[in-house]
Write the structure tokens for this entry.
Amino acid sequence: MALDLILRNARLAGDPADVPLRDVGIGDGRIIAIESDLAGDGEVIDIGGRLLSPGLIESHIHLDKSRILDRCSPSPNRGRDHMMRVAAVKPGFTVDDVYRRARETLERSVMNGITHMRTHVEVDPNVGMVSFEALQQLAADYRWAIDLELCVFAQEGLTEVPEADANLVEGLSQGAKVVGGAPGYDADHAGQITRIFELAREFDVDVDIHLDVGPTTDDMDIDLVCDLTEKYGLGGRVAVGHGTKYSLLPADDLRALGARLADAGVTVTVLPATDLFVMGRERDHAVIRGVTDANALIDCGANCCLSTNNVLNPFTPFGDSSLIRIANLYANVAQRGDEDELRACFDMVTERPARLIGCADYGIAVGNPADLVVFDAESPPDAVATIAPALYGFKRGRPTFTRSLPTLHRPDEN
């Protein structure tokens, strides 16, 4: 068999524990064969029983405002002016500046096993199309390592900001595949949400909205999003990010929400790193977590994802671009630790975001693109539990990174 590469002795992410190790053969950028003792030409990498997974999917990140702590510090004393701090420095963004910072975050993401990414791109009047231009170029330059999808996004209001609306239209005209906004920063929540859906229908693109962020369950907008998703036939193509208010719902109400999301086809993307950092700051004790129990929503039939959101900025002054770390953080906060629950956490950075972004040929199957990552783990639950490092990455069969494991130098071996 003519193969370019054989990954030998792999434990496939979707296999039960009692399934023997298998070999994966790759040719012309695709998976050609999956079998034991695979024979063929080409390079062989023996991964020694480690976990072979489809590439991870980062479904909600802000590359354009990552790595700005040098000019924009977090609020001291648990302050709450994160958005104002970022807004103040956006006029100083340049194409080269955004490209450089986003590239560093993107490269670290690739080296942590991410092969697909959706990034929000702010097009408010104080930044215009600067970030969009930079990230369009970045997407083209790094196609060898990652598929980067742009969501044009109004962060600071839309219904009374004609230039923001015009910039959304411009980005969609230039090929953006997703449109979004943040109704919480708009005087007219319903007006902004309705306009976003109108644009999605006009340009036949997906919707991804920052929604229902706050310390109470008052004034939630999710019902309108579900109604418009059904009205425009966009089931499976709509996501809401954050949803911190859902973390405050009683169990019965959360189950009802899960059923509504499932019926409408609306995905919830939970962002534990950012929401843990920014939520509950109005309290001096019994601080709320603000992290929705995605496992509970999944149990009701809804789709949910886990994602990073921000890296090294006032909203989240941390981050190593590791989705496995995000999944582990979420599992700790949501108190989900048995094998099935941890497997669901792994699914929320692989299979579930693949559904959201429409990757029909995603996964380890013959004929699919060879977008793969090897983790130093025995199973998906093990990878989440141990924050397992990614050791090899492949995009369309081409190696994208290699990470060496550390060596322990015992006294009797020196």
